[in-house]
Write a structure and sequence with these properties.
The protein is α/β, with parallel strands linked by helices. It has twelve helices and ten strands. The protein has one domain: NADP-dependent oxidoreductase domain (TIM Barrel, Alpha-Beta Barrel), CATH 3.20.20. The protein has an eight-stranded parallel barrel, surrounded by six helices. It has a two-stranded antiparallel ribbon with strand order 1-2.
Length: about 350
C-alpha cells in the first residue's frame, strides 16, 4: 500500500480508504447505497486491514448515524490500528440548531459521533458543507478547541467552493487556529470540475484531496455502456439520486475510452478509472465504497501499477470539457497562469 502525506500536516494516509456510506441503509436514500450490517461490516474491515487499508470514512448523517454505529462495532478492540474520518454540518435533527457549523452544533455533533463510534477521538473531522450563516471564525474556533481537547486530530472541508476554503484558510492563519489540511470532494473522469479552481488552490495552499465517488456516482463500473443500460447495481437501484446529471453521449465516450485502455492493460474499467485518479495532482486518498467483499477486492486491483503517459493522455482527451468562465478565458494565459493539469 502506498501512503501519502495529508496536505500540510504530518499525517500519512493510505492511498485508498473505505467509505462506509453502504453501512446501515436505515432510510430510503441510503438503502440504494447499501444495507451492510455489523457482521458483514466486520468482515469488510478485516479484508481492508489485511490489505493495509486502515482508513475508514463515515458521516453523522449516513443512515441517520447508523453508519457510525456499525463502523464502531466493526473496529471494536482495534481502534489503535485504524484512522477514522467523519463529518458534521448537515441536519442531524429537527431543531433549528441541529444543523450548521455553529459552536453549539459542532460540539454536540462531535460528542454524538464519538459515542456512536465508541471512541474518544476522531482522527479527521470534516465540515460536510459550508455554513454561510455562521461566522467562519466561530466555526474554526470551535474546531480548534476540539483539537486542543484531543477529541479531533485534524480538520478538513468538504463540498466547499474555492472562496469558502480560501476564506477559512486565511482566517486560520490570521488567528492561529487549526487549519483545514484536507478537502473531500467529488472528482472522477466524468466529473473534472475540481480541476478548475479547487485543485490549483490545493496545490498553492497545501490542501490534500480525498476523492469521493471516484467512479462517477456509480456510472464508471462498466455496467453502463453505449447501447446498454445498467441491469444491476447502484444506478439500476435508483442510486443516482442526488448526483450530478451526465450527458449520455459524454458518458459513453468516456466509457469507450476506459474500455479500450482496460483491454490494453488487462485491467477492469473501474480499476483504470481509479488508477487515473491516483496520478492526479493533490490526490492523497480515494474513498472507495463496496456493498460486499467482491466489490472491495475489485477496487484493490487499482493498486500496484500505473497507467502509461499515453493512456493518461488518451483518457484526458476523452473526458475533456470546456470549463465555465473565467476558467476557459484563463486557458489562453498559461505562460503567466499555469494550470496543474491538462484540461
Amino acid at each position: 500500500m502506498e501512503y501519502r502525506q495529508l496536505g500540510r500536516s504530518g499525517l500519512k494516509v493510505p492511498l485508498l480508504s473505505f467509505g462506509t456510506g453502504t453501512f446501515g441503509g436505515s432510510n430510503e436514500f441510503f438503502q440504494r447505497w447499501g444495507q451492510v450490517q455489523a457482521n458483514e461490516a466486520t468482515r469488510m474491515v478485516d479484508l481492508c486491514l489485511d490489505h493495509e487499508i486502515n482508513f475508514f470514512d463515515t458521516a453523522d448523517i449516513y443512515s441517520e448515524g447508523a453508519s457510525e454505529e456499525i463502523l464502531g462495532k466493526a473496529i471494536k478492540g482495534r481502534r489503535d490500528k485504524v484512522i477514522i474520518s467523519t463529518k458534521a454540518t448537515f441536519s442531524a435533527g429537527k431543531g433549528p440548531n441541529d444543523q450548521g457549523s455553529s459552536r453549539y452544533h459542532l460540539v454536540r455533533a462531535c460528542e454524538a459521533s464519538l459515542k456512536r463510534l465508541g471512541t474518544d477521538h476522531i482522527d479527521l473531522y470534516f465540515m460536510h458543507g459550508f455554513d454561510a450563516l455562521t461566522p467562519v471564525e466561530e466555526t474554526l474556533r470551535a474546531l480548534d478547541d476540539l483539537v486542543s481537547s484531543g477529541k479531533i486530530g485534524y480538520i478538513g472541508a468538504s463540498n466547499f467552493s474555492g472562496w469558502h476554503l480560501m476564506k477559512s484558510l486565511a482566517t486560520s492563519e490570521k488567528y492561529g487556529l487549526a487549519r483545514y489540511v484536507a478537502y473531500q470532494g467529488y472528482y472522477s473522469l466524468i466529473g473534472r470540475d475540481y480541476e478548475w479552481e479547487l485543485m490549483p488552490l490545493g496545490l498553492d495552499q497545501g490542501v490534500a484531496l480525498m476523492v469521493w465517488s471516484p467512479l462517477g456516482w456509480g456510472r464508471l463500473t462498466g455496467k453502463i455502456r453505449r447501447g446498454q443500460a445498467a441491469k444491476s447495481g447502484r444506478i439500476a437501484a435508483g442510486g443516482a439520486a442526488g448526483g450530478p446529471i451526465v450527458n449520455d453521449e459524454y458518458l459513453y465516450t468516456v466509457v469507450d475510452a476506459l474500455d479500450a485502455v482496460a483491454k490494453n492493460t488487462g485491467k477492469t474499467i473501474p480499476q483504470v478509472a481509479l488508477n487515473w485518479l491516483m496520478q492526479r495532482p493533490t490526490v492523497a486518498n480515494i474513498v472507495v465504497g463496496a456493498r460486499d467483499e467482491a466489490q472491495m477486492k475489485q477496487n484493490l486491483g487499482a493498486l500496484g501499477w500505473n497507467l502509461s503517459k499515453e493512456d493518461v493522455a488518451y483518457l484526458d482527451k476523452a473526458s475533456q470539457q470546456t470549463p465555465v468562465y473565467p476558467y476557459w478565458h484563463q486557458m489562453g494565459f498559461d505562460e503567466r497562469n499555469p494550470k496543474p493539469t491538462t484540461w
